[in-house]
Amino acid sequence: MARIHATAVVAAGAVLAEDVVVGPYCVIGEHVVLGAGVSLKSHVVVDGRTTIGAGTRIFPFASIGHETQDLKYAGEPSALEIGRDNTIREHVTINPGTAGGGMVTRVGDHCLLMVGAHVAHDCRIGDHVILVNNATLGGHVVVEDYAILGGLSAVHQFVRIGRHAMIGGMSGVERDVIPYGLVIGDRARLTGLNIVGMQRRGFSRNDIQGLRSAYQFLFQPGGTLSDRVDEAAERFHGIGPVDDIIAFIRADSSRAICQPREANVG
To answer: How many helices (H) and strands (E) does the chain have?
Structure first.
C-alpha cells in the first residue's frame, strides 16, 4: 500500500504505485501518475497531466506540473514527463508543455535539480543532468545528457546545451553550447572544454586529445566556423566526442553557436 500522510490531499483519479510515499501537506492532482518508490517529502504539490518515474524523490515546496507561465498557453491538455531516480530539491518548479512546443516537457533519468531550479514549458532534459541552485531554463530549451548548469545560470528559450557541457555559475546563455563545451560570462562565451568532466566519466586519453585538437581547429581565429566544420568532419572522423560536436553544429537550430570571444561568429 502507498503510505499517504493524513494531512496529504490526493485527488480521485490520481494513480499511485503501491510503495509511493506521500508526506505531510502534499497535494496531488487528479491526472498525476506516480511510479514505484516515488517519495514526496512534504509540502510538495504535483498537478496537471504529470507522470513521475520510479524512485524519484521530491523535496518540500516543489511545484511540479502546474500551468505554464507562457502567455500563449490556452488550457490545452499538455503534459509533463519526469523519468526515474531523479532528485528534485526544495522550491524547484517544472512546467508542462504547450501546443507551440509539442505539448510535453520531459526530464530524463538520474537528474539532480537543486534548490530553486526552474524548468520552463516544452524543455527537454536528458539523463544525468545537474541544475545547480536557481539555474533557470527558458521555454523550449534542450539539455543533453550529463550537462551541468551552474548556480544562478539562465538559459534563453530555444537554446541547446550539448552533452557533457558545463555552464559556469551566474552565466547568461543566449547561444547553443557545443557538447563537452565550457562556457561562462554574463553573456556566456565558450572558454574551453569540460576536460575534468570527461576524465571523471572515463573518456579515453585518445578521445580527449583528439577533442582538444579538433576544438583548436574549429575555433581558431580567422575564417568562419561554417567553413571549418566539413574539414573537421573528415580530419577527425571516428573520434566519438568530435563526431558529437560536428553533428550538434550541423543540426537545425534557431540559435547561433556559442564561440570563444576571439573567434569569428559566422
So the answer is: 4, 28
